[in-house]
Amino acid sequence: SDGGTASRVFGSFISWMQDKTAPVFVVATANDIAQLPPELLRKGRWDDLFFVDLPGDEERRRIWEIQIRKRGRDPAFFDLRELVEMSAGCTGAEIEQAFVDALYAAFANGREPDTGHVCRAAAESVPLSKLMAEQIEALRKWARGRCRMATGLAAALALAALAGCGRSESRDAGKETTWKGVTTGYQVVDTDARKGGRR
Question: 57-131 in CATH: which number?
Answer without folding.
Answer: 1.10.8.60
